[in-house]
Specification:
Layout lengths: L1 H109 L16 H13 L6 H10 L2 H16 L21 H5 L21 H10 L6 H7 L3 H5 L3 H8 L4 H16 L10 H10 L6 H6 L4 H5 L3 H6 L5 H16 L19 H4 L4 H10 L16 H6 L5 H7 L7 H15 L1 H12 L11 E2 L29 H4 L12 H5 L13 E2 L3
Antiparallel strand pairs: 1-2
Function: May regulate the disassembly of focal adhesions. Did not bind receptor-like tyrosine phosphatases type 2A.
Family: Belongs to the liprin family. Liprin-beta subfamily.
Protein name: PPFIA binding protein 2
Length: about 550
């Protein structure tokens, strides 16, 4: 009995000891759990701080790129300004020489005998004699040749020359009138006192100030050249000044004349000039014409394609050229990716819908909690990256830099799905939970109707998913197409990367498109039929 009690006592002591150890372990576990939570909070704060710094870095890189382009543009303008200043200095030197010559001639004229002072009281019979005496007197001066004689005669007062010339003409013709005409009285067949001033150059005739109310056809040569410099085509001013008489010269020119006479070999520069001249001819008010090529480089940043800024800047692509961009234009600008073509196409459509408002794209998060598709369509590439950070995918957000992903592409392109986004974010396929999380957030972003349309399109026959390797190839022309090339209109909608609908064609971008109503309402002009995408194909 005693052994049993002692055994129970030993077991009780052991249980108590184990209980103490368990309580110690529990307290230690709580302490470690607290430390783990604290570490996770610090890690989350570090991630948020890092993503914020990355966002600031991207913004600063965009600003630096913009400032570099602005600097290049200002250097070009400074170069042309220095050239014009040099020409002005040459002209000023010529004017100084002319002034010295005039002063010399005035000094020579002061030594002439005062023969002309009594011309008004001289009879007609005495005029030939006085003229001969006057010429002999002038030629008797030292260092005065025949050319100087003529200059001295020209520098004499207008009234005296007019009186002298009229009397000589009447004496030679034998038609002397009984009374003298007044100096400023007009006589048909005689000399006009206003002939000299009408041939001189007025201060306004050489001014480069352009009155926009004046038709372009009436602009002077200097006004046209000044406009070319402001329009970003200043490198062609020298040849233009030798060829152009006025604005009508450009309006009447053929496309091949721009290359021959002005030396415009760059096809996009010719297109830029032709579009501007067409705007002058039709007097159509296009909002897109207010966006210059510097703005377009920033727009490329907004839609996530900064890698093409140099090509677009070299091509002087402005807002009006965006409106009339063709597939071949993009290929010439070295944009060969199918995904990037679609990105630019959707972005131009967003500009159409917003009447080419330069501030229509949203770069920063607003107060919206559940944005509608009509709001998402205006998201820039930076705004999409902010959305990724908000749905706990901050570490993948920087991968969208240079991808061309923006709100317009996400909403308008039916082939753009959560799988496409996961591919561009470089999320590994084996991370199924992460991809499922992205798919859920993507569906909530685009809405149920858009998700349904994207799913229906993905299940359709002939569907080709978007990939980063797919390239755009130029449309091949068969033998039968060449007979139609000359008949094709310059504004043929089939050639534009983003054609506007027939209702908006007449009014250009001054008329808004149909209101938003799901994806189909958001993109009324996008070509989505697989059988009609004959210009787009996989990389061979």
């Amino acid at each position: 009995m005693k052994d049993k009690e002692s055994f129970i006592h030993v077991l009780t002591d052991q249980v108590e000891a184990q209980g103490v150890k368990i309580s110690d372990l529990e307290s230690s576990l709580e302490e470690h759990q607290h430390k783990l939570n604290s570490t996770e909070e610090m890690l989350q704060q570090e991630l948020l701080s890092r993503t914020s710094l990355e966002s600031q870095k991207l913004n600063l890189m965009g600003e630096v790129s913009y400032l570099k382009l602005k600097l290049v543009d200002m250097e070009e303008k400074q170069f042309h300004g220095v050239e014009r200043q040099h020409k002005a200095e040459v002209k000023l030197q010529e004017l100084r020489l002319l002034k010295e010559k005039v002063d010399y001639l005035e000094d020579q004229k002061s030594h002439l005998p005062p023969l002309l002072l009594c011309l008004d009281c001289t009879s007609s019979a005495q005029i030939p004699l006085l003229t001969a005496v006057f010429l002999n007197s002038v030629q008797s001066l030292r260092n005065v040749n025949d050319a100087q004689v003529l200059n001295i005669m020209y520098s004499m007062s207008m009234k005296s020359i007019t009186v002298l010339s009229s009397r000589i003409r009447r004496t030679q013709s034998g038609g002397l009138q009984g009374e003298d005409l007044e100096p400023n009285q007009f006589r048909r067949g005689g000399l006009r006192a206003t002939a000299g001033p009408r041939l001189t150059r007025t201060p306004e005739s050489g001014s480069t100030v352009r009155d926009m109310n004046t038709p372009f056809s009436q602009w002077t040569r200097e006004q046209v050249c000044g406009w070319l410099e402001d329009y970003g085509l200043g490198q062609y001013v020298n040849l233009t000044r030798q060829w152009v008489d006025n604005g009508q010269t450009l309006l009447s020119a053929r496309p091949q004349d721009f290359e021959k006479e002005m030396g415009i070999n760059h096809p996009l520069h010719r297109k830029k000039l032709q579009l501007a001249l067409r705007g002058f001819s039709t007097k159509a008010l296009e909002k897109s014409s207010e966006l210059d090529h510097i703005w377009v480089t920033r727009w490329l940043d907004d839609i996530g394609l900064p890698q093409y800024k140099d090509q677009f800047h070299e091509g002087r692509v402005d807002g009006r050229m965006l409106q009339y961009l063709t597939v071949n234009d993009l290929l010439f600008l070295k944009v060969t990716s199918q995904l990037h073509h679609l990105s630019i196409k959707c972005a131009i459509h967003v500009l159409h819908v917003n009447k080419f408002n330069p501030h229509c794209l949203r770069r920063r998060p607003g107060e919206e909690r559940n944005p509608s598709p009509s709001e998402v369509i205006q998201w820039s590439n930076h705004r999409v990256m902010e959305w990724l950070r908000a749905v706990d995918l901050a570490e993948y957000a920087p991968n969208l830099r240079g991808s061309g992903v923006h709100g317009g592409l996400i909403i308008l392109e039916l082939r753009f799905s959560s799988e496409t986004l996961a591919m561009l974010l470089n999320i590994p396929p084996q991370k199924t939970l992460l991809r499922r999380h992205l798919a859920t957030a993507f569906t909530a972003l685009v809405g149920m109707q858009a998700s349904l349309e994207k799913r229906e399109y993905a299940n359709a026959t002939g569907h080709a998913p978007l990939t980063t390797a797919a390239k755009v190839r130029p449309k091949k022309l068969g033998f039968t197409h060449f007979s139609h090339l000359r008949k094709r209109r310059p504004d043929d909608l089939a050639d534009y990367i983003c054609p506007i609908d027939s209702g908006g064609l007449s009014a250009m971008n001054g008329v808004s498109h149909r209101p938003y109503a799901g994806v189909r309402g958001l993109s009324p002009i996008l070509d989505r039929e697989p059988e009609r995408r004959e210009q787009v194909g996989p990389k061979s």
